[in-house]
Amino acid sequence: MRLTRHESGSLREIWSISWPMILAAMSNYFMTLADRIILSRYATDAFVAVGFSHPFYWANARAMMAFVSVTGVFIGQFYGARNYRQIRKIVWQTIFIAFAYYIVLIPCAWNAKIFLADTIKDLGAPYLSITLLFLPFHLAGFGAIGAFFLGIGVTRIVPVVILISNSINILLDFLLIFGLCGFPELGIRGAAYATGISQLVAFIIFLYKFLGRSYRRRYLTHIPRISIKLIKKCLPLGIPNAISSILNSGGFAIVSQIIAKVCSADDALAFTIANAIYLFFWFFADGLGKGLCMICSNCIGRNEMHIIFDAARSAVKLLLVFAGFTAIFMVISPRLTLHLFYREEVTDLFFLNFRWMLFVAWVAVVVDAFRWMFQNILIAADDIHFAVISNVACFWLAAFVPIFLFVYILHWWGAIFCWQCFILDSCARIVSDFFRIHSMAWKQKALEAAQFSQRKFKSS
Q: Which of 45, 152, 246, 265 has a 20 to 30 Å separation from 236 between CA atoms?
């Protein structure tokens, strides 16, 4: 069954599927951006500490969201094959898995200081601990149940939840960071609690709608049964995807600690601002990639794999528009971006360094968006093992090793060199994934996925 009334693989179809996912992704990234901007008004050292402690939260979030995102793959395949009763099963499996991740998160939160550089651990550790403990609610809400609504074409719910969640986050940021209206002044802890509470509220709303009467009748959403067969099907797809993300995002977290330890205070501030903007604009690539993955999964479920290439061409057009939009803030108006976070007077040398760093970060986010597009095509086709090997090898060889050698050991270069290595890493992955897709080596796996969605679980 088709996802929309638009022509399969067209620009209109990929936009109609992707824009709610883009907004859903923006929810998490905008919360982070709002925390950073408001914290920068509170204290610069708090802003920098959060900037360098957040990558470890990001590593866990990316890894588990990569695992939970397999929900969208199976929803697309089952919906395309009109196998509706299996959809709620896969959603419940990912909800259970999201909360089971507390086994990892609780020890990490308790020992947060050991992950952070000495220069920022006292301020950054409380923020990291609190945000890690709220992470499963975000994974289960936006990652699992949100994917359910988007996968069945009910796109109105996600934007409403995003609006409510972000409004709560921003309000609590002001109340808890600065201690307004009788609330205690919590500083960094206030920013963490604001984000976590807003994620909890979003999950409660999603769960309430998921258990609504119409969805109980058609999808049996009120029956939270564990399906061993579906879990076994999820693991080969989700675990490699999660391992790839944790290795790469964890490597980036280590790089951030290297920068915090060896770079000057000015370099650390400039990197923190550039990274905050990079992370925020990643929402578009993230949402578009998931939308493309869902469309490709649906096409595979219908056994119409030729449409995948049409969808990829449509995605490229949207990414070009994205590149132009982000250039306004990261290339054309760097001073405006700087003033969002730091309003004090800066030297000409600092501004020139910041402007160059922001430009390189812009190139990095655009190139990485194209890399994410290719990877999601391979994920939809169940060709995850190739994507994992390519991602890990490219990052550690093209980015981590040069940064560790030339920045940490030899002290030859600084934060800008790190961004250049990230660009090289993304380019290497694009080349690798492009040739894999062009060779059609993934087609057999896609055929197996189509057979699975159409035959294996037809009975409810």
A: 152
Closest residue by Cα to residue 457 from 301, 267, 252: 301
Tokens 């994205």 belong to residue: 322
Closest to 376 (Cα-Cα) out of 6, 2, 73, 24: 73
Top-confidence residue, 196 or 64: 196
> 157-176 b/e with 16+ CB inside 10 Å = b?
bbeebbeebbebbbebbbbb
Using a 10 angstrom Cβ sphere, with 0-12 exposed, 13-18 middle and 19 or more buried, the burial of residue 224 is middle
Global pTM reads 0.79
Report whether 190 contacts 177 (CB < 8 A): yes
The answer to whether residue 126 sits within a structural domain is yes
In a domain? residue 222: yes
pLDDT for 456 beyond 60: no
Q: Give pLDDT tens digits for 47-62.
A: 999 999 999 998 998 8
Range of the domain at 144: 11-456
Q: pLDDT for 318-359, tens place per residue?
A: 999 999 999 999 999 999 999 999 988 889 999 999 999 999
Domain count, the chain: 1
Taking the C-alpha atoms of residue 189 and residue 333, their distance in angstroms, rounded to an integer, is 32
Query: CA–CA separation, 217 vs 214, rounded Å?
Result: 5
- Angle CA 445–390–93, to nearest 5: 55
Residue owning tokens 């290719």: 374
Q: What is the mean pLDDT of residues 244-268?
A: 89
Residues 6+ apart with CB under 8 A from 358: 270, 273, 274, 277, 330, 331, 334, 337
Domain contains 293: yes
Inform me whether the pLDDT recorded for 365 exceeds 50.
Answer: yes
Higher pLDDT, 417 or 17: 417
Residue 6 lies in a domain: no
Q: Does residue 200 contact residue 137 with C-beta atoms inside 8 Å? A: yes
